[in-house]
Amino acid sequence: MYRSYQNINRRKSKSIKVGNVKIGDNAPISVQTMTNTLTQDIISTINQVKRIEKAGADLVRISIPDKDSSLALKTICKKINIPIIADVHFHYKRAIESAVNGAACLRINPGNIGSVDKVKEVIKAAKDNNCAIRIGVNGGSLEKKILEKYGEPNPEALVESAMYNVKVLEDNDFFNFKISVKASDVFLAISAYEILAEICNYPLHLGITEAGGRRLGSVKSSIGIGKLLLNGIGDTIRVSLSDEPEEEVKVGFDILRSLNIRNKGVKIIACPSCARQQFPVIDTVKKLEESLDDISVPLTVSIIGCVVNGPGEAAMTNIGITGGGNNTHMIYFEGKKGHRIKNKELVSYLSNLIRKKADKIIQHK
Fold it and tell me: Is the CATH number of domain 5-258 3.20.20.20?
């Protein structure tokens, strides 16, 4: 039987709320990223979050390294439209201040947030301010006692850290939380998530931490996150790249689009090009991706340089083009031959067709 994401049994998880975004249960898998501005530089942070919003992110995480940053949230939260997750390390008071100043979720790392009593104070602040929590376990910052027990970060160590802190939250009657067990090693992260998925039903935030630059980081994240999603594991994702946050969002949605989980925006199916190509496929695809970046309507477009696979690919897309001889190409609509074009500037011509299609879809909603 042909396998698709719709045939996959998605893991049953509790439902939580981060601001107005539902996570877990059967909610859409959300995409998030993290700002890289100085949070206390309020204008720069707001401007970056607005770009992140435009890229389509559902959530944004903001680092809170000091009191000026936690206080800045009061202004930032009023100027943006997506929920903020306050990223707090080492100082529990920053988490409390973040909850008071508008954060919708607190990301705390059990390995460095402090004693159980300090965590309890963070829980109280989260309750008082309708704030979710993410238990953010990381292979690079496990608790000392767990590292001593296992000798090194391994899947069992990450899971033990997570479940210890789950118990702390549960014992304090707090259940609006999600969990991550990230590592920079793909196999370590996958194994930890697989174990965790078997022993609890809280929502899981997926990611391969410190994945690297745009190319390698995208590959590592696609393998790690994709493997878990294909097994029905995962409720929200972040692709961690040494790049701009908007790129993380784009790659995140590319992963979901590739698995037919969330078909947001234009999905371009294109050949790698060869000597048979009848127009510059690579250049056309690059320019089209850039020019259509603002479209959020789910559309599939096939850009095939010759007639070998062109008609077959076009049969499965909303709009398609197949290269023909003498600079004459066939345009397809919903898999059927539409019309031929000759001597057209392909990028602008195709862009206009795609935008008209997107507008029609919006009008019929």
Answer: yes
Structure tokens at 229: 């999603």
What's the rounded Cα separation, in Å, for the pair 137 and 48?
A: 26
The average pLDDT across 291-311 equals 89
Question: Each residue of 308-338: b (16+ CB within 10 Å) or e?
Answer: eebbebbeebbbbbbbbeeeebbbbeebeee
pLDDT, average across residues 311-318: 90
Distance of alpha carbon 326 from its chain centroid, rounded?
43
Q: CA 197 to CA 195: how far, in whole Å?
A: 5
SS3 content of the chain, % helix, strand, coil (to 5): 45, 20, 35
Could you please state the CATH topology (level 3) that the domain comprising 266-363 is classified under: Sulfite Reductase Hemoprotein; domain 1 (3.30.413)
Q: Average model confidence (pLDDT) for the chain?
A: 92
Burial bucket for residue 112 (CB in 10 Å: 0-12, 13-18, 19+): middle
Q: Are 175 and 169 in contact (CB under 8 A)?
A: yes
- Reported as a single tens digit per residue, the pLDDT across 333-354 is 999 999 999 878 999 999 999 9
pTM confidence score: 0.88
Determine the pLDDT at residue 324.
86
Going from N- to C-terminal start, the domains of the chain cover: 5-258, 266-363
